[in-house]
Amino acid sequence: MQIFAILGLVGVTLGMVGAAAVPESKGAPKTCAELNVTLGGQCDPAVDCHQCGYCDKFIRCGNSTRTWDEVACDVKVEDDGSILVTGKLFWNQGSNEHGGICDLWDELPDDQQTQYRADPDCKPGCEFKSDAACLRRYTYKDPKFEAGLWDSAPKTLMCPAFTQWNNTELTCQFCHDGGDCNANC
């Protein structure tokens, strides 16, 4: 049986999903693996009430589908396309007796915040993309967490004349193909 994996993470990550402790009266939170949860697998909403998740997604037993469904926590995208840390909800594992909730960043335990920020599959990093229509043009994203950004809007930038963006080196380089690499700009 295939065990559920959020964002392609398996094994070790799943073991961390239920690491937070809760009061004894509520019982220890369980991981997706411990619950034998398989994304898309059959479940009974009357019995399978426990949820499990990671980063900004969680799994729950769908009332109408009667299968284990992945659901994204809510996010507010700013007009410029950026996402503020305060405008995004994250899975807070073990925060209640049914496994967790989508919660504000400041409400997550410190160890969970550290784990999410360190995981490149959870926290977006810097990103460069070339523009096929104009080899000089590229976009750049720099989500500065310290400035309150979870993900930034892409900024369009240009290489100098007679140069083009190199996706491998992530910088501008001279045109070496003999043609006019700036023709469409």
From TrEMBL:
Alphabetically sorted, this entry's keywords are: Signal
Look up keyword Signal and say if it applies: yes
Any signal peptide, and if so, which residues?
1-15
This chain belongs to which protein, by name? Uncharacterized protein
